[in-house]
Design a protein that fits this description.
Helix content: 40-55%
Shape: elongated
Number of helices: 11
Order of helices and strands: EHEHEHEEHHHHEEEHHEEHH
Strand content: 15-25%
Distance between the termini: 63 Å
Length: about 350
Amino acid sequence: MIAKQIKGKDFYGLLAYNQRKVENGEAVVLDANIDLDSTVEMTKEFNLIRQLRPRLRKAVYHVSLNLPPNEKMCDKNFVSIGLDYLKGMGFDDNQYIMYRHFDQGHEHIHIIANRVKLSGNLVSDSKDYERSERLVRKLEKKYGIAELPNTAFILRAALTQKEIEKSLRTGNAPIKSILQHQLGEALKRSNNTEEFMYQLHSRDIRPKFNTSKTTGRVSGISFKYEGVIYKGSSLGRQYSWNNIIKHIDYEQIRDRTIVLENNHSEQGNKRASSSDSNTSNNTIGKAKDVGGGAVQTGEKPNYDLGSAQKDGLIDEPFTPFKMELEDFDGRKRKKKRRKKRL
């Protein structure tokens, strides 16, 4: 079993997100010790106790308990294991509400709790990840759940508070969730790197490989979808390149051309777009390739990520990876400068 903990500031956004899933038939409330009312009223009840610790910034405790694939659990046992987890983590006198979700392939529950106890004391978060791992191992034995190390069961990354708020504000499904689903479907239908690239492009997903300048080894992958760019690992460990190649037949030497062509074509699209939108600011020069021919290279494009970055949807700015011919040309220039200095 995997327990994923998140601490936040806003009860309303998290409650509204879960309540919407309930309304859409994607979740049910399993248990709670607060009055089940509208999102606004439940938020008020949580915040009433929160006021006992007015200086506490992150009073929201959110944890998901995830069973391994193919494991089943009835509602009664899910409530029991959820309460045991809360008590084991120190939430023995705290407000909480427990949801069971049906939106993923594995069975899981979400618990929203107040870190401020009804007495006004605060639940410590000191070494909470280590304590959680030890507690999960005990609960696995108690409830007969398969004991798996973290690396054996890989989860999607949970939505951040900002992503939840944007979804509520716009009424659209979170881009991260859509992308995670599309990537999962692409992997199911792919046996090798070429098929994976085809599946991604057919879904309007633009991958970008992070490759070594010297060896060509792929060390990471990012995905652009609907104008938003995510590192694969930020979507969840199963979408990191090291885990993707466990599901497809990938060979570094054989697939080198596919990787480079993908990166080159993406850079070419960016240059063409930049040239169309602002010709006066796009200077094009020539660089010699390894075979002595000439290829056109443009200025490094500026990726304006706009409001998406402000909404916290992008983990880091997307940097296009340089082509091998540019690396070769750069090394030649460095050698010339060193000779001149000597």
